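S.,

As promised, the magnesium ion run. Input:
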Amino acid sequence: MIRIAVLPGDGVGWEVLEGPVRLAHELAARGIIDVTGPLPVGASSYGSTGEGLPASTLAACEDADAILLGAIGEHPGVPLSEHRPELALLALREHFDLRVSIRQVWQPGRPPITFVRNLLAGAYGGTDLRGESTGETPAWDRFELEPWRIAELAEIALGYLQRAGHNARFISVDKANLLATSRLWRRVVGEAASAANVDVRHVYVDRFAYELGCTDVGDAVVVTEGLFGDILSDLASGRAGSIAMCASASIHPGHPVSGRCVGLFEPVHGSAPMRAGQNKVNPTGGFLSLAALLDWFPETAVHSEAIRRALAAVIEQGVVTYDLDRPGRTVVGTDEFSDGVVKSCLLYTSPSPRDGLLSRMPSSA
Ligand code: IPM
Ligand code: MG
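Predicted complex:
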């Protein structure tokens, strides 16, 4: 049985996870998964324990198959001058070798756009590839990307393409007119695509940002370097109506390297400290993260689609949080929105625990 470690983290992290964690406990009560936590991490953890990633949190993550994270970033009352909260996230990625990021921008009733990018190496290389400035000396960041990493990303992206609809396009984004890493990128992705007999469109990152900003890129799998994908996935979520419409999975492909953990799942948005505690933010990214987590493991994948259907059902009824406010819609708080999604999932619960607890949504939803 898979075990999920819950790390709410900073700012709005707990608010966006409260509903998804309720669903996770429903699955646990039926013996489908095991849930551990909540465990401290990030700036809030630094504020209460003096450590951004306490050893007890790391140990609980090692003992889990996946991490469900709220957000790591600024937290009210913990000055950034004292602590860099993102170091805890980078440490988790390194410790478990979570080297591949998969982000799906979701919109009700539409095919998702999927981003596959590297999370280690490239722009996300280790501290030995960075030179801090004294204030007078130059700062530098060295960018290195081995061919095997690009090939692995291309393979994973091609896997998503295969599972997507027939119309899905395969897009490789780079900056080959400037960067050596991008010229290697283009070659390796091109070779992987032709070996799989798939058409790939190579596009420069600036051009693709423009296209995402002003056209409906829609049904596509995008493979790109970490930093480009970081920026482009936020942009694509904005186009989908809100940054809350995207879940982020940081994955270790293959057998775990430290403990059991092979994935960290979180909404793509940050900790939004100015909105923390206001019962305002959209928890969709938290629900999508739980769905992505369940999808990742063959034994729980049957339960994920019901979560997306419940989200779609609530949004299509016109019940939304402030960020999706449009004429004719009703704006509710985080709690009320989460209640709606949780109820929508559980309304169709099967009495049999083996029958897909969350998989009994009406097909019209
Ligand atoms: C993200 C964040 C991180 C990243 C930061 C905090 C290092 O922006 O998860 O999107 O760039 O991966
Ligand atoms: Mg980001």
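The first strand starts at residue 3 and ends at 9. The chain has eleven helices and 14 strands.

- D.
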